[in-house]
Amino acid sequence: MLDKKIVFVKDWGAYVRVSKGMITCVVKDEVKWSLSPAEISSIIILANSSISSEVINLANQYGIEIVFFKGNEPIAKIIPASYAGSFKLWLRQIRAWKSRRVNFAREFIYGKLHNQWVTLRYYEKKYNINLNSDKLLQLEREVLVENTVEGVMQKEAEGAKWYWSGVRQLIPKELGFKGRKKRGEAKDPFNVALNIGYGMLRKSVWGAVISVGLNPYLGFLHKYRAGRPSLVLDLMEEFRSPFVDRKLIGIARQKPEDVKDIKVIYTNMVFEEEEIYTQARRLANAILHDEEYKPYMAK
């Protein structure tokens, strides 16, 4: 199941139907994609659209899951009556949480620290300045020997101090960026832009986690809290710096006023979806087959 394709319905007014045995997405008589049901693992509905009962029937036969999004969050999922694959994965996920929680937490933060280092190092080389990227490199090595989730989180917190200190040096002073602030606390335009970017990233990661059959609420790094998609937040850690921060730093340095323009931010937050979905598959495979998990490493 995990080697099959995940397909998206992104266009308003799209119609997903069956044509000559193929599941087909059509928009105003234009075929957007057409695939054999045997090739599909999930159909992700991102826009107002229609789907035929024949597609639901084929989805049941071939074990295809259908997920509906509204805005940034999934709102419903049609699970085949022959539901088995995801249930097995969920059981393995619970077992992994009990026996390998620190292993996964360590890899998420190892990837995050590495990718933060790559971002700062890029600017150090480009402008011949010191942003203390070596501190992140050191923490990246140290986190690999941590034996507790609390220890891993401490390394992450230490890394955040060095990382955002380095980013602050890169952001033009007129934007008033003094440090990282979360949604609700953010007043300066760069923090607001970061929060918009992370919201968009969360949508992509959430879709990937659900599409491969993982339970989004059972995380390894972030603790369980009712309604919080802890696993989505876990997997996001690897992508924040390369997919969001680096793009916004580039915009801020090139044309600071553009950081205040929501249109510019939305236009630039185009993620490498394939990388995100591939990483979700890696995570599912690592849990399902008791394999080592390797985080996304930016270059």
Question: Would you kindly provide a brief summary of this structure?
Answer:
The protein is an alpha/beta fold and 299 residues long. The chain has helices at residues 53-62, 85-99, 101-127, 133-143, 149-170, 189-211, 230-236, 240-254, 262-268, 273-288; strands spanning 5-9, 14-19, 22-27, 30-35, 40-45, 49-51, 65-70, 73-78.
Outline the biggest β-sheet: 4 strands, mixed
Q: How helix-rich are the residues, as a percent range? A: 40-55%
The secondary-structure element order is EEEEEEHEEHHHHHHHHH
Mean pLDDT: 91
Relative strand content: 5-15%
Spans of at least 5 consecutive residues with low confidence: none
Number of strands: 8
Rg from C-alpha positions? 21 Å
Gross geometry? globular
Secondary structure category: alpha/beta
Question: Largest beta sheet: what is the strand line-up?
Answer: 1-5-7-8
Describe the model.
With 299 residues, this protein is α/β, with parallel strands linked by helices. Helices cover 51% and strands 15% of the residues. It is built from 10 helices and 8 strands. It has helices at 53-62, 85-99, 101-127, 133-143, 149-170, 189-211, 230-236, 240-254, 262-268, 273-288, and strands at 5-9, 14-19, 22-27, 30-35, 40-45, 49-51, 65-70, 73-78. The strands form 2 sheets. Strands 1-5-7-8 form a 4-stranded mixed beta sheet. Strand 7 (65-70) and strand 8 (73-78) form a beta hairpin. Helix 3 (101-127) runs parallel beside helix 8 and helix 6 runs antiparallel to helix 8. It starts with a strand and ends in an 11-residue tail after the last helix. One of its GO terms (molecular function) is hydrolase activity.
